[in-house]
Every structure is written in C-alpha cells, then in structure tokens.
Amino acid sequence: MRPESALWPAVCEMFVLWGIVATLVGQAAAIILLFRAFSSGHWVRSLVSVLSICLSGLTLFLVFFFVWLTWFQVHRASGLVLP
C-alpha cells in the first residue's frame, strides 16, 4: 500500500464538507435574492420566485436532514460519545 493512499479518505471528507457548506450558503443566498425579486407589477416573476424559494427551502431541509441523520443518529446508535 502506498503511503499517500492513507490521505485520500481525509481529502474526500474535506470535499464533502466543503460541498455541504457551499450548498447551504448558496441556497441561503438564493432565498435572500429571490425575496428581493418580488414585485407587485410582475406576477409571473413573483410566481417563479415563490416556486424557487420553496425548492431552495426543500433543498435546505434535505441537507439538514442528511447531516442530522448521518452524523447525530449514526453516532448515537453506535454508542460513540461526542466530544
């Protein structure tokens, strides 16, 4: 086994963490910008904004659920004590 192969799990974990953080930041920024796009004169744009806000909220919910399920529930079920 090559010595650098021991680093790949840590690199993969770092990429997953950055991906989750980027998803959270991107969706939160999208919701803020979409709330600012509401206009009383443009009902189609407002309708698309509402749809996009709902889908962004669903994405945030799924990411939080995934983190909760994989981190807190797996560690609780395995008996590991969190620091």
Description of the structure:
This protein is an all-alpha fold. It has one domain. It contains two helices and no strands. Helix 1 runs antiparallel to helix 2.
How is this fold's topology laid out?
Elements: H1 8-36, H2 43-78
What is the structure about, briefly put?
This protein has 83 residues and is an all-alpha fold. It has helices spanning 8-36, 43-78.
Residue share in β-strands: under 5%
Helices, by number, come to 2
| Number of separate strands | 0
Order of helices and strands: HH
The coarse silhouette is elongated
First-last Cα distance: 32 Å
Descriptive tags:
83 residues; mainly alpha; 2 helices; 78% helix; 0% strand
